[in-house]
Amino acid sequence: MAGQLSRRRFLTLVGLGGAAALGGALGPLSSAKAGAPGVFDLGDVTVSYAGTFYYFLPVVVAKERGFFEEEGVRVGELVPSFGGAGTIQNFSDRGMLVAEVLTPAALTAIAFDGLDARVVAAGVSSLGSLGWVVRPDSLAFTLQDLRGQSLGYTRAGSISQAALQLVLEGAPGISPEDVEAVETGGVREGFEKLRAGEIDAAAALEPLTSTGAADLRLVFFARSFVPSYAQTVWIARRDFLEAFLPDETHPLARFLRARKRAVEFIVQNPEEAALTLIKYLFLPLEPAVALLSLGEEGVFAGTYYSGGRLSGPALVRVERGMQRSALIARDRLLPLEDVVDQRVLPAAGEEAINIPPRLELAAGARAEARITVEAAEPYVHVQNFGPGAVAVRFDARIEELPPLPRAVKIPAPPGELLVEVEALSEGAKVRVF
């Protein structure tokens, strides 16, 4: 691509016309139903960091390939948003029906800030290319080699801060206390601090790794230690969600089916996907670099974009990351069962999962939790956040967890599983997934 893509040019490319990009809110739900017979006009859609990072690619592929129209929905402008809060602001102020949002922002807005919406599907369920780089003369070649050194993350409350904490908690031979975590202000700013010797390792992710870190060396990917993480989710206005249920032709199901088709197209057609990507990026990127960059994210391996199906472990890791980055208290459990609504997923061709329950039990009390054990992560995970000890039973196995902070993972067969939790002392606060 010859030059950097402007925001106005981005909106022109992805929209039905330039003027709508500067328009106001969508208005009442009824006004969004106008369109050709049998086609639901979904209006504008916003995606976090569209044009900057790669979350948006399935939407533009579905739009360019005509998948939305074939499924019976019309999508207007794809409006770029910067950061989770900016996406929520666009979604709310412009009266949008759906949005793809950084998961911590979505959970916070719905659970605590009164946003009348629900999480309806997964967007990106991997940490992708997020990793840490060092100077070429560094003696660090593994994560454990970074003990006693300073590691940069972008900003307080960011995914890079949460991921760094989760990596350090989950990796063998190192802990969060073994390193100094330093806020750098951004990915590029981290690269500069690293080159200046102010930190020993910096957070990096595509496309900035490929375009701005050729002189630096990758030490580890976060995904090597955090196998799934819900980076983004799709949210929908609650009145929109309720208006068409339980109709299997729900416009949201049609939208998600089209997006899932785009995800499958991207995996099967890497070169075309790379060419589509570079048309919409704000940064200039050569086709070969775009292809490599998408591969680094895990896009072509099918591990980056979700077809829509949610993941219990991926959601709970977001909750843990929010606790570790002080977005919520360390013993606070999010009301996932109230925030998530999966009723359209089966009509969109995806299975609903059992949302990981939060259990707060008095001494001697018992509770049952039905969970979905993922084939990619065949374990029962139990985290005890409270001061009370608990016992966990399933398939004739018993595991006892002492008080906070304790976490275990127990091998288990994929599929639905019924787990019993008993509080052995007062103050048990447990998440099972």
What can you tell me about this protein's structure?
The chain has 433 residues and is α+β, with helices and mostly antiparallel strands. It has helices spanning 7-14, 57-64, 67-71, 84-93, 103-111, 159-170, 187-195, 208-212, 238-244, 251-268, 270-280, 287-297, 312-324, 336-339, and strands spanning 40-48, 73-81, 98-102, 117-124, 131-134, 150-153, 180-183, 202-204, 217-221, 232-237, 358-361, 366-373, 379-384, 390-394, 397-401, 406-411, 415-423, 428-432. It folds into three domains: 7-125 and 229-297, Periplasmic binding protein-like II (D-Maltodextrin-Binding Protein, domain 2); 131-224, D-Maltodextrin-Binding Protein, domain 2 (3-Layer(aba) Sandwich); 357-433, Jelly Rolls (Sandwich), CATH 2.60.120. Strands 2-1-3-10-4 form a five-stranded mixed β-sheet. The protein has a four-stranded antiparallel β-sheet with strand order 11-18-13-16, with no helix packed on it. A hairpin with a 2-residue loop joins strand 14 (390-394) and strand 15 (397-401). Helix 2 crosses helix 10. Residues 1-28 have low confidence and may be disordered.
Q: How much helix, percentage-wise, in residues? A: 25-40%
Q: Using the CA coordinates, give the radius of gyration.
A: 22 Å
The coarse overall form would be globular
The CATH topology assignment of the largest domain is: D-Maltodextrin-Binding Protein, domain 2
Unreliable runs, pLDDT <50, ≥5 residues? 1-28
Number of domains: 3
Number of strands: 18
How many helices? The count is 14
Distance N to C terminus: 45 Å
Question: Which architecture of the largest domain per CATH?
Answer: 3-Layer(aba) Sandwich
CATH class of the largest domain: Alpha Beta
What proportion strand?
A: 15-25%
The chain-level structural class is: alpha+beta
